[in-house]
Design a protein that fits this description.
16 strands, twelve-stranded mixed β-sheet, disordered C terminus, alpha+beta, disordered N terminus, 16 helices
């Protein structure tokens, strides 16, 4: 029996590098030597010891889920129920499977965190687990002061972005009959281990979020977590107070759909709250600034927008490429990518009499998937049944909508053209004047000879 246990421990330890296993061992030693939990055996720890170690870093419900997952690990395959405390072997298997395992191993640990039974769990139980997981990610990042400048919005009850992202993640699940988990009518369906395993494989965010709460909640193997690629740094002009339409979960979700080289930093280019309700200001602040994310909130509370993969230019032709996409943040989270039907990715124009003036993405003239009119504060999202370019539905509550809040974020590093240093001209300090010059069809003769310094310099 002793040799069997030893082999089990060695097998699970083999997924960790030697230095990683040493760190795991130190954490177990700290948990099992908690003096306030003297009732447990020397080589195990209790729920109280785990809660003492975690402190306020994770919600109590998630700490209990982690503990239950650990004590339900059945090393010999013969246990009739969970153990009263967590042994070294159980702890190591649980950590190894969650942090280093494949989809099958991760799904097994997730099931143990959801239910004590070996049989299927309901989709409603998976939904509750997912919402707890997302809420814990926001909680621990806030506690460790690693939100990257973004916020975890405070609201009574469940945070809207938690519910929206949980629903999006669950929509990736395929039930035993092949149906997608869409809508409350499916919540009483059973999800067996194969279903959970397939879901973990389809939705890599689930494993990523679990690794965040393990690394940052238990403060173990933190060097193996690259938060910079998960939570982009938020940059706003120095001294400007600004609350974005986006919170940390919605930013994480959108950022994951960007090309990797642009995921690490978001820089605010335009906000209607900071820069005014002016289409000329919008044009002046977003043109020639590299790839960016534009979003707005309509009067009905729907938040949506689009990603422009190349610099906006004021011209009477469509622009961009197939990396562009449209998205929704509230009341639901979704990303809609190109269909290949046409190349109407991006459009920005002003001062024309025969074609539309405004900012658009997808669809066609007068029938855009997303349109912001030159008469700032008005727009439309037309899609019957869906946008031809992005296969997106109507993003706004009303087909023709009104809005007060809009913001545009440049993503990635500042383009090289903006890094050259020189004194600013009136056109640099007044984006509206710059935009009006472009709209009139005149060229900036100094453009190319001198470059616009970065606003943050």
């Amino acid at each position: 029996m002793g040799n069997s246990k030893s082999r089990s421990g060695q097998r699970c330890c083999s997924q960790f590098l030697p230095e990683e296993q040493a760190e795991i061992d130190r954490l177990f030693d700290a948990l099992s030597s908690d003096e306030s939990c003297s009732s447990t055996s020397p080589r195990s720890f209790s729920l109280k010891a785990l809660k003492n170690h975690v402190g306020e870093a994770l919600p109590s419900e998630m700490v209990t889920r982690l503990y239950d997952g650990m004590r339900r690990v059945d090393l010999a395959g013969k246990a009739k129920g969970p153990s009263e405390s967590v042994s070294y072997e159980q702890f190591t298997v649980f950590m190894s499977h969650l942090l280093k395992g494949n989809s099958e191993e991760k799904s097994l640990m997730i099931l143990k965190m959801i239910s004590a039974t070996e049989g299927p769990v309901t989709a409603r139980e998976v939904q509750k687990f997912t919402e707890d997981l997302l809420g814990s990610v926001v909680h621990v990042l806030g506690h460790r002061q690693e939100l990257g400048g973004w916020t975890g919005k405070k609201a009574p009850g469940a945070v809207p972005s938690v519910r929206a992202l949980a629903a999006q993640l669950l929509s990736e699940m395929r039930l035993p009959g092949g149906e997608r988990l869409l809508g409350p009518q499916w919540l009483d369906c059973d999800c067996d281990r194969a279903t959970i395993e397939d879901w973990v494989f389809r939705s890599p965010h689930v494993a990523t979020f679990l690794s965040v709460i393990i690394h940052k909640g238990l403060l173990v193997l933190c060097s193996s977590l690259d938060l910079a690629s998960l939570v982009p740094e938020r940059q706003v002009d120095q001294g400007r107070e600004f609350e974005s339409l986006l919170d940390v979960l919605s930013v994480i979700y959108l950022d994951s759909h960007l090309p990797r080289e642009w995921q690490h930093r978001w820089r605010l280019l335009f906000s209607s709250e900071l820069h005014g309700h002016s289409f000329s200001q919008l044009c002046g602040r977003i043109t020639h600034r590299g790839p960016c994310v534009a979003l707005l909130e309509d009067h009905d509370g729907h938040v949506f927008g689009g990603f422009a993969s190349s610099s906006w230019e004021v011209k009477p032709q469509f622009q961009g490429d197939d990396r562009c996409f449209l998205f929704s943040i509230s009341p639901s989270m979704a990303v809609y990518t190109h269909t290949g039907y046409n190349d109407h990715y991006m459009y920005l124009n002003h001062g024309q009499q025969t074609i539309p003036n405004g900012l658009g993405m997808g669809g066609q003239y007068e029938y855009f998937g997303l349109w912001v009119d030159v008469d700032f504060g008005k727009g439309h999202s037309k899609a019957k049944p869906t946008c031809t370019t992005y296969n997106s539905p109507q993003l706004s509550a009303q087909e023709n909508f009104q809005f007060d809040r809009m913001e545009v974020w440049a993503v990635g590093d500042v383009p090289e053209a903006q890094l050259a240093k020189s004194s600013k001209s009136i056109l640099d300090t007044d984006p509206e004047a710059q935009a009006l010059l472009e709209i009139s069809g005149r060229t900036r003769h100094s453009q190319g000879l001198r470059e616009i310094p970065d606003d943050n310099e």
